Known about the structure:
Layout: H1 11-23, H2 28-37, H3 42-52, H4 54-62, H5 66-71, H6 73-77, H7 84-94, H8 99-105, H9 117-127, H10 129-136, H11 142-156, H12 159-176, H13 180-194, H14 203-206, H15 211-217, H16 225-247
Helix pairs in contact: 1-2, 1-12, 2-12, 3-4, 7-10, 10-11, 11-12, 11-13, 11-16
Amino acid sequence: MSVPADNRIHPLIALRAVRGLLRDREDTRQAFLLVEALRGKTTLRQFARFCASESGRALLAEHPSLLAHLNDRESLAALPSGSLGRAYFEFVSAENLSAEGLVEASKIRATPPPAGDVTWFRERNREMHDLLHVVAGYGRDPLGEACVLAFTFAQNGSRGAAVIALVGAWRNLRRLRTLRVPRAIWEAYRQGRRALWLIGADWETLLAQPLDALRARFRVAAPVHYPQLRERSAAAAVAEDQMRLAAA
């Protein structure tokens, strides 16, 4: 299944992708299908805002590769402790992730999009996902993913991110059985609304900056509800995976 290369909403593709995510929360391909199916003109509106900002115009003039910076693990590991880049390196290393992995999972179109400013901008937004995990303070457990997608929706208006966050809210509420789950996700949305627009940030130069200073600069408040549930969410995910393997 792939998404046509146009700016229309594709509800049937989105519905199939939601069903896929309900079957397997780790199916990143279904998440990208859902985001693409519900994209519409959201990216074009965000791109116009990007072009209107001083930092956006400077980045467009240079077209830096955020992917290349995030894939340079040796340089990231050499950054000072407490910096954004070092924290990102420690995050992806602990979770066995890579920026290249997101690239592969995002290849859902029958033909690649044409090269150009908008494609570069979309790819840059894709590369930001794990950086937002680090900056906003959310782990890779199921609740952390739902929270960071609620934060993302508040930042970029992605309908797909909103739907995935809602699916995550429902799944986590069933698993953890506490009203702190929707509170945590709502808090993440409000956190994203209060923060400055991170999509326009010059991430390449920010990687060497202290993470705490960046959070203060971009008005990213620390979450309160999520940290109280993080260990419980991770343990429930492990138990769920073990049950799935035993039933296979």
